[in-house]
Amino acid sequence: MEMPDRRQSGAILVLALIFLLIGSFVVIPLAGLATTNLQATAPFITERQLEYAADGAMDLAIETVRYSATQGYPGGTCGSITTTLNGQTVTVDCTSEAPGTSGAAGEDDESRYVSFVACPGGDTSGCPGQSFLSATADYADFTPSGDVQVGYAVRILSWDVQSANF
Amino acid sequence: MERRRSGSPCHGETGTDRQPWAGGWEAGDTLIEILVALVILSISTVAILGALTTTLSSTGEHRSLAADDTLLTAMAEQVKNVVELQPSPPAWPTGCGGTGGPLTQWYEDTTTNNTPNIPLPAPLTGTPLTGSSYYPVSLTDPPYVGYLVNLTNVQYPNGSTWTSCPVSATAAGVQKITVDVTSNANITDTFDVVVRYQGDGNA
């Protein structure tokens, strides 16, 4: 009985080419997966760094204004502070508000009332529209016995985090 | 006279150097074809293995980074929690920071009264490295076994920069603590967290 009429010449070459094709389908997605993972890591780390840098810069600004005899008083200047944390430069602007007029819960009529906004970068001219953290603080410049002491107490009235996706 | 069943002889073949099998012909491959196929297979195999290896190593590195990130964030929040947010926080730590300064040692201390000033965040547990009175602490909980957590530096603000010792009495109310985490793959990540004095009066 005769075998079917077929030749096997070049079969290995064809199989190798098919294997190469299948391999390409495997390698390309694998490389893409690895690249995506690595690319995704950087923004996560940067966002965490930004959030903590803003948090730290905000704490620094609140504490700086606390003991200042010139910043944060109604009608006066408040200024801004720029610092670098975790490789991220953050500027915090502060604005003096008139005590007792904001209507914020817990606001003390006899204290300085100051609002802060934090934004990325070192632009001291301000950060309209780019702030990713804002806070308000109420300062009491007197002791319970009524003696004047600048920055005796501070209360954080609000602490609002916006997106840090830039 | 022999004859092929169909087609012409392969390269280098004659009609007489192939043996019939069960009535057919095993028209095989030439050496050059096999070598070319072998080269192609080798290249593609090496490429696939290389891609797999790269993926595995990058996945491991990514995992270490993710674990580092988790531990750094957890430890940073623990520092803030202990120093700032407790109803009865410890006395505000003072002294010069820097590397090895008393303030840094206060944060690093794991042995005072058998209670570390900054314990690991629950439910993590760890042990100080042998012979060390301070951090680093080697974690003992999966999946962080062997990871090292260390509070390495404390600084005070000086305007927009940071310095080891407070430049004024009121400057002591803000401290920047540096947290280090080293994975068991020897990947170290560093992170700064700021704490602020929340009490009344001066820090």
Topology (elements, then pairings):
The complex is a heterodimer of chains A (166) and B (203).
Chain A: H1 11-66, E1 80-85, E2 88-97, E3 112-120, E4 133-142, E5 148-161
Antiparallel strand pairs in A: 1-2, 2-3, 3-4, 4-5
Chain B: E1 20-21, E2 24-25, H1 31-85, H2 102-108, E3 126-128, E4 137-139, E5 148-158, E6 161-163, E7 174-182, E8 188-196
Antiparallel strand pairs in B: 1-2, 3-4, 4-5, 5-6, 5-7, 7-8
**What is the string of SSEs of chain B from the N terminus onward?**
EEHHEEEEEE
Compute the number of structural domains of chain B. Answer: 1
- Describe the strand arrangement of the main beta sheet of chain A, using strand numbers: 1-2-3-4-5
- Low-confidence runs of chain B: 1-16
Share of helix of chain B, binned: 25-40%
Structural class of chain B: alpha+beta
Give the helix/strand class of chain A.
alpha+beta
Beta percentage of chain A is 25-35%
Q: Which range best describes the helical content of chain A: under 10%, 10-25%, 25-40%, 40-55%, 55-70% or over 70%?
A: 25-40%
- Span between N and C termini of chain B? 111 Å
Number of E strands of chain A: 5
Please report which band the strand proportion of chain B falls in: under 5%, 5-15%, 15-25%, 25-35%, 35-45% or over 45%: 15-25%
Summed over residues and divided by their number, the pLDDT of chain B gives a mean of 80
Mean pLDDT of chain A: 80
Largest interface, Cβ cutoff 8 Å: A-B, 55 and 56 residues
Largest sheet of chain A: 5 strands, antiparallel
Explain what the structure shows.
The complex is a heterodimer of chains A (about 170) and B (about 200). In chain A, about 35% of the residues lie in helices and about 30% in strands. Chain A has about 170 residues and is an alpha+beta fold. Chain A has one domain. Chain A has a 5-stranded antiparallel beta sheet with strand order 1-2-3-4-5, with helices on one face. The longest helix of chain A is centred in the N-terminal third of the chain and has 56 residues. Chain A starts with 10 loop residues before the first helix and ends in a 5-residue tail after the last strand. In chain A, about 30% of the residues are buried. Chain B is an alpha+beta fold. Chain B contains 2 helices and 8 strands, in the order E-E-H-H-E-E-E-E-E-E. Chains A and B meet through helix 1, strand 1 and strand 5 of A and strand 2, helix 1 and strand 8 of B.
